């Protein structure tokens, strides 16, 4: 983000830096969550050096192995041999049909080798997001002080720890493709990774171990053991026939045995129930046999639970969540911290007794096949379409309510969002857009703002596109919620660098509000402010500045001259003049804005500090370094005191100060500060955060005079990272590419510089337009080189 950009305050957009500048500061704009505008803050926790974190011998996250476990000696022996032959640095894949017992075999292997591995960690790996969530939990378990960090930071810390230690066992349960765990497997080659999967191929050089159905004798022994856990002297006549009907699948046999034992039902009667209530084949999956078996067990079990009707309802609700770590408080009146409902506790207990769910004090787990059955309407009275829809809507309301009022951009709320994100995504992905309700759209908006702040604009755009279309269908194209969702969608496109689409959406929102409610309606002020920022980002000062002036006048009239949104718009207008190359006009406006913010908000308010930073940068642009540097120094000191040494605003402001030192020719102060700031950014924000990328670019440009080799390496790395993370056409990527060309000129390589500048100029003309200030500057630089 650019030097004049500002941390938003209740509905304000801010703007990127002047052409070719890599000075950075806070950046934000209006986002609309759960019916209100929110304020962005980012206070992260300190991060340890993960290579120094010792192996925790007692750290264990592996499911308990049932006491009824039988057989699998051959599979366990092959696992042991594979680990031995790899020297504890191998990948092993347990593959087979769902319900064949792959996970139980993996848990048994981990149990048998408690002294061999430390730690032993289990991750549900049925999606890339689930893998990242499991790695994030591992990072927090290893270093609890990291709990407040971003998801991608926690993933990076876990991968770094695994890559710097040996002797651990990591189970990736239900992985489909290697690519789904590429965040880990592409980088970590030590330790033992044990994968369970339904797929048998595509595992590269990994050792594969097939897990089939149980042999007949072992299946009957499993049934007997499970039944006797509840019924000491059962009648198991026709038990072998029952096992055959269940397809010899351990999961189905275990569920059936729990039912027989709890209800004192003989296998013959159970077979009659299966014949009377056959489960239907599912067309949505290729694993029809497995799902048919699970469906039969699910049906007859729920029949026996009809005296606890809440059990079936809860199971249908659980079906819309991710399978693991479903918080029990989601089903508590009043949510987390509420008083538990004894009926819910009883229903959970009965479901657990029949092995339909796995229950602990904090969370619920449900087998994903049971969930698939429970979400699928059928003639089965337990799976009526209306009941499944009611369960879906109830789960949606609970998830949306659990996130309502929690600012997704406040790091203090991130643990809650990380807990609920897998369940929110599961629900949204399983439900069809046609079934969306206003609560679904509210949930999508909350989750989307969190994902955008975590650096995932692609998913955010897809989600908000759906929410906007659903709100238009449910409430009309000009309803307030629809318009604010479209404003949020525009903001996502702007963050992703698609300024053209962002401007189109902002203009549509404003036009709809003004058409329905009149040109002076307050609801138009927020998207109008954001539209002005998007115009400014494209270099269209002729439209940006007049629109900012009009927005400022309207906010002064509607909200008052001292309203925080008015103050932010005043700051934005000043920065617009600065970005337009008129720091002399910007400086008095910024001084006035600073005085107003100090008077209204206080001298140490984050938004006041942002204006002070912007004023310092305006002095630097005007060539007044004697004024700029003291202002930057004061801003850094105050930001450290107010927000902490590792706050993203602090990191950006330090970068600005270092670049001011560089501009003054004081590399002795600039380079150490830039190096330390890059290290801090990588540690706090992660290597791929835009602030870190810009910090790497800044250090590279500063190093060019003292170490050209290191300088080019840093800037090329920053360029590759920006292309990968933000995209090749993102404005930040274009700026870094232009910086690289400028470095070629200063290093005495004009021929190569001409080639690079020509390519960069074409891209600027295509993406930003021929009249954008950056494009004009590049064209002038290229003309100057070609004339020499």
UniProtKB/TrEMBL annotation:
Residues 1-22 are annotated as: Disordered. Transmembrane segments: none annotated. It holds the Pfam family TPR_12. This is FxSxx-COOH system tetratricopeptide repeat protein. The gene is fxsT_2.
């Amino acid at each position: 983000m650019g030097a004049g950009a500002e941390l938003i305050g209740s509905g304000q957009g801010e703007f990127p830096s002047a052409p070719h500048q890599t000075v950075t500061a806070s950046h934000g704009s209006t986002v609309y969550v759960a019916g209100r505008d929110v304020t962005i803050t980012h206070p992260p926790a300190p991060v340890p050096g993960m290579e120094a974190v010792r192996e925790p011998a007692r750290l264990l996250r592996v499911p308990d192995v049932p006491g009824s476990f039988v057989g699998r000696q051959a599979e366990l022996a092959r696992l042991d041999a594979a680990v031995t032959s790899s020297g504890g640095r191998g990948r092993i894949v347990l593959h087979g049909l769902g319900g064949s017992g792959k996970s139980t075999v993996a848990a048994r292997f981990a149990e048998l080798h408690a002294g061999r591995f430390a730690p032993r960690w289990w991750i549900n790996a049925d999606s890339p997001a689930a893998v990242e969530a499991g790695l994030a939990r591992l990072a927090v378990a290893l270093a609890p002080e990291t709990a407040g960090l971003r998801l991608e930071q926690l993933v990076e810390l876990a991968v770094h720890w695994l890559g710097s230690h040996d002797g651990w066992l990591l189970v990736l349960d239900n992985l489909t493709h290697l690519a789904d765990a590429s965040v880990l497997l592409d980088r970590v080659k030590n330790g033992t990774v044990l994968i369970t999967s339904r797929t048998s191929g595509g595992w590269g050089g990994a050792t594969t171990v097939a897990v089939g159905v149980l042999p007949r004798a072992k299946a009957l022994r499993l049934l007997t053991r499970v039944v006797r856990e509840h019924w000491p002297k059962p009648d198991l006549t026709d038990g072998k026939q029952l096992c055959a009907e269940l397809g010899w699948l351990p999961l189905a046999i275990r569920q059936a045995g729990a039912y027989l034992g709890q209800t004192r039902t003989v296998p013959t009667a159970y077979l009659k129930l299966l014949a009377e209530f056959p489960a239907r084949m599912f067309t949505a999956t290729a694993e029809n046999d497995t799902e048919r078996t699970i469906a039969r067990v699910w049906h007859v079990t729920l029949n026996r639970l009809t005296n606890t009707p809440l059990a079936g309802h809860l199971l249908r609700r659980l079906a819309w969540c991710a399978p693991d770590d479903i918080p029990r408080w989601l089903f508590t009146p009043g949510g987390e911290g509420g008083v538990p409902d004894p009926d819910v506790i009883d229903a959970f207990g009965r479901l657990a007794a029949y092995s339909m769910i796995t229950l602990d004090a904090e969370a619920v787990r449900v087998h994903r096949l049971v969930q698939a059955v429970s979400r699928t309407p059928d003639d089965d009275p337990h799976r009526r379409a209306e009941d499944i829809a009611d369960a879906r809507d109830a789960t949606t309301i609970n998830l949306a309510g659990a996130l309502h009022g929690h600012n997704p951009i406040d790091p203090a709320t991130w643990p809650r969002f990380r807990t609920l994100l897998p369940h929110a995504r599961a629900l949204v992905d399983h439900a069809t857009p046609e079934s969306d309700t206003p609560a679904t759209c509210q949930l999508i908006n909350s989750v989307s703002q969190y994902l955008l702040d975590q650096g995932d604009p692609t998913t955010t755009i897809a989600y908000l596109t759906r929410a906007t279309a659903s709100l238009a269908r449910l409430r009309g194209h000009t309803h307030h919620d629809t318009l604010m969702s479209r404003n949020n969608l525009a903001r996502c496109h702007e963050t992703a660098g698609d300024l053209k689409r962002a401007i189109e959406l902002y203009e549509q929102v404003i036009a709809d509000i003004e058409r329905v409610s009149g040109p002076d309606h307050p609801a138009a002020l927020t998207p109008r402010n954001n539209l002005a920022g998007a115009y400014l980002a494209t270099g269209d000062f002729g439209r940006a500045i007049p629109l900012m002036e009009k927005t400022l006048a309207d906010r002064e009239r509607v909200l008052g001259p001292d309203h925080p949104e008015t103050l932010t718009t005043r700051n934005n207008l000043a920065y617009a003049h600065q970005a337009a190359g008129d720091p002399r006009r910007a400086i008095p406006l910024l001084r006035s804005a600073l005085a107003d913010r100090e008077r209204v908000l206080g001298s140490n308010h984050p938004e006041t500090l942002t204006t002070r930073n912007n004023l310092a940068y305006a002095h630097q642009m005007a060539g007044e370094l004697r004024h700029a540097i003291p202002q930057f120094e004061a801003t850094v000191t105050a930001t450290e005191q107010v927000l902490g040494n590792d706050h993203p605003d602090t990191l950006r402001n330090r970068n600005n100060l270092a670049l001011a030192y560089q501009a003054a020719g004081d590399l002795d102060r600039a380079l150490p500060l830039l190096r330390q700031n890059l290290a801090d950014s990588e540690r706090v924000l992660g290597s791929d955060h835009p602030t870190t990328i810009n910090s790497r670019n800044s250090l590279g440009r500063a190093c060019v005079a003292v170490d050209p080799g290191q300088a080019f390496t840093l800037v090329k790395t920053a360029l590759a990272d920006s292309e990968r993370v933000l995209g090749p056409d993102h404005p930040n990527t274009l700026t870094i590419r232009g910086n690289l060309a400028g470095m070629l000129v200063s290093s005495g390589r004009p021929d190569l510089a001409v080639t690079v500048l020509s390519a960069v100029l074409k891209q600027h003309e295509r993406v930003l337009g021929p009249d954008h200030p950056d494009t004009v500057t590049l064209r002038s630089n290229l003309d100057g080189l070609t004339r020499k």
